[in-house]
Amino acid sequence: MPFLAGKVYPNPLGTDASDVCCESHANKGVSVTEYEERSDRFTAIEDRFAGYEVYDRSGSKIGKVDDLFVDESDQPEYIGVKMGFLGTSSTLIPWDAVSSTDDEGRVITVAIDKETAKNGPTFDDDREITPEFEQQVYSYYSLSRSSTASGAYEAYQVEPRASDVRAEDELRVQRVEEELAAGTREREAGVVSVRKRVRTDRERIEVPTRREEVTVERVPVSEGTAATEAQIGDEEVRVPVTEEEVVVEKRPVVKEEVRIRKDVVEDMEVVEEDVRREEIDVDDETTRGL
Description:
This protein is α+β, with helices and mostly antiparallel strands and about 290 residues long.
C-alpha cells in the first residue's frame, strides 16, 4: 500500500525484534535504524510539498496539497488535494498526472483540467487506500499502472543491512527530541462591505434676478401750444412690466468615486510551543580491581 508521508506508523520492532510479523513478509524484520531513517525521509518529502498549490493545465487553481503518499522507494505516488476552505475530504490524484513542479513558486501543475479533478475519487482519514481503490483512481484519470506496481501493496519491510549487525559488546542508545515547525494556511478573516445610501440636505444659493419698474414723470410743455380736437378726451395707456423669476432644476452630478482593492500585507508573528527532548544520563556503577 502507499504510505502517507508525515504519518506516524507504529514501530515495526515493538518491544522485541523476534515478534516481527507482517503479512507476506513474516520472516523479515525492520531495524530501528531503518525505521527512523525512513521516518526522516517521510518528513523531508512532506516538508517539501506541504502547502503547494495545484493548478490544472489551463492555469486554473484546483486547490492545495493536503496529503502526500509515497511508494516503497519513498517516491511520491499520490497527492491529496484539498478544495475550498470547508472541504472535509481530499481528491486523490496520481503523481503520474503531474506534469511539472515549481519549488520556487511552490506550485504543482497536473495534466488534467479542474472539473475532472473536482469530480475525481476522494478519500478521508477513515478510508483505506486499497489496490482496488488505486485501480479506480487510475481508471478515472485514464492512466495505466506498470506491471511492477503490484508489489507496492505489500507491507513495507526492509532487509537488515550489514551495518545494522551489531557486536555483542555494543549497545546503541538514540536520543530523540522534537523540533518546532510552523506553517500557514488561508482562512477567511472577515468581509468588507461598501454600500451607498441617499441623504437629503437643504441647500441655499443666491440667484441674481432682474425686474422692470415704471417711472411716471410729468414734464411741462411750452406755452401757447394749442390742444387739438384729437388730443382732448379720455385715454388709457398700458405699459407691460416684466421681471425674472427663479426656476429650480436638479440634476445628478458625479462628485467622486470610491476604488476598492486588496493588497497583501506581510506580518511577522511569533508562536510558542512546548517541545520535548530526551536526555541521556550514564551511571557507571562498575567496580575495578586496584
